[in-house]
Amino acid sequence: MNPNGINEFQLWALIDQLQGNIVQLKEEVRTAQRSIEKLQRERREAKGELVLKEREIKKLEKKLADSKKKPSKSKEFGKIVSNNLSATDPNTELKQQLDEYIRTLDRCITHWSNLS
After folding, report:
1. What is the model's pLDDT at position 81?
2. Of these four, 47, 74, 83, 104, which has the most CB atoms within 10 Å of its CB?
3. Are residues 54 and 77 in the same domain?
4. Are residues 3 and 42 in the same domain?
């Protein structure tokens, strides 16, 4: 017996218990590391999805802004009509007339704006 009152058998039992605790702690560390790695992967995936969603939001916001833009003057409509004219189109004369009406309306609107 040693001076602390622990015999050799008790000492070996304590050593075995400590070794068991060490093995258990190692397993818990491995489990925790696997959990950390899994969470890090999920975080990276979530960040990637977030970036994609932010890009999609920006595209949709741009589309919305573009769709809200309206031609400011009827001259733009005249340009659209004249750009769509084709020499072989049977409605060319109608389109030209429509373009002339639009220009006339534009002049009237300008004149009325100046009167107010």
Report:
1. 55
2. 74
3. no
4. yes
Boundaries of domain holding 36? 1-69
Instruction: Say whether pLDDT at 26 is over 90.
Output: yes
Q: Please tell me which residue, 44 or 72, carries the higher pLDDT value.
A: 44
Percentage of the chain modeled with pLDDT above 70 = 78
CA distances from 40 to 26, 45, 66 (A): 21, 9, 39
Whole-number average pLDDT of the chain: 82
Q: Please give the helix or strand (H or E) that residue 96 lies within, else none.
A: helix 92-115
Angle at 92 between CA 71 and CA 85, to 5 degrees: 50
Is residue 96 a contact partner of residue 65, using CB atoms and an 8 Å limit?
A: no
